[in-house]
Design brief:
single chain; alpha/beta; six-stranded parallel β-sheet; five-stranded antiparallel β-sheet; globular
Amino acid sequence: MSLLQENFEGRYDLVKFIKIVQQAGMYMILRIGPFVAAEWNYGGIPVWLHYVPGTVFRTDNGPFKHYMQKFMTVIVNLMKQEKLFASQGVRSSWPRQVENEYGGYEKFNGEGAKPFVERSARMAVSQNIGVPWIMCQQDDAPDPVIDTCNSFYCDQFTPNSPNKPKIWTENWPGRFKGFGGRDPHRPAEDIAFSVARFFQKGGSLQNYYMYHGGTNFGRTAGGPFMTTSYDYEAPIDEYGLPRLPKWGHLKELHRAIKLCENELLNSEPTALILGPYQEADVYDDGSGSCAAFLANMDNKTDANVVFMNVSYHLPAWSVSILPDCKNVVHNTAKVGSQASVVEMIPEELKPSVASPRKGLKALKWDIFVENAGIWGVPDFTIDGFMDHVNTTKDATDYLWYTTSIFVDEKEEFLKKGGRPVLRIESKGHALHAFVNHELQASASGNASNWNFAFENPVSLKAGKNEIALLSMTVGQKA
């Protein structure tokens, strides 16, 4: 969406995507936002909004609230027009989300934070869509908006009202990856343990983030320093392949939980202490039907427990699921699914000459040799440094800074063969330094610390010396 128009074409065809979800028999949580984080550039908020006079993001700010309401109304009206809400008879339509994980930032946004939360909730509810609205990580979400949990573990999460269901909107089966960082890893056993514990302790709805990894194409990856790969070590990887044993183990877990469906929906749990780190939660619907979850929260030591006069062995950090309160059909620490490793191997790939688009030729790479610095007429000249993002308005990742200095031939360092030191301090994200068209040094921040400073000896000559710095951004803060 821009100041002038909306774009729902191609990869932005939201209606088409939702209908694919319907066809697959799946359910969907629509995160309208407009801030959604998701390691996207600016968290999904369009860059042009940053330059609307007087705009301050995600607080009680007039311009931001105006465009937020305008965007939300466009999306909601589109959904209504296509009859995609549950109130219109669509089964796949589940909660709608406004804002995202604002609770942790609320204290930093001053007096405007609380009114912004309340205004966002009223704005959402006033859309009258007939399905619940949620706010994740927002423990002060105003009624009737439901506060939800995002975390590796949400079994101990409690909504801010007994009238609200216990919802886990983001269960992280892995994590995003930053440039230079380690590949994320979360064992299948730990994910299964967290899910079983959530339903053991009265959970209503659990959603994986992500279940299917993906790719943030183009310049959509934010962060900064987030890789374009958003594989997330998800059960289905970036290429659509099942990640084993994670995918298979979670499939078996949900099959076991499904066997407890009647008891989970028609009764409240009764907690029983089985040991210092062991407990059971029993769901009994009063008709003689019973399901139980036996948990060992000790992350190092196995335990033997007695439940209903029967002895059970519980591996460390595991949950056993008993759909009939007698027989264990699944233990989260016991992986029975096959394991496999996907490896990338070198291959002689040839570009396809066939293309769904007319006029496109076979894939061909071109190499361009570019001079360092600015050639031709510069865009503008100014004394001093300009902020990169405010200068380019995020239209490009690159900005050249150029200057020149004159070195007298009598300079002492020329006589002694010394090299002056170039020192650069930057708030991010990376740069290449050139002197007289020769690369002198490169430097960058990282996903943990965007800012950097470096000192490097450079080669100068008598007379005029051209200094050119190529500043680079690696995605904007989500």
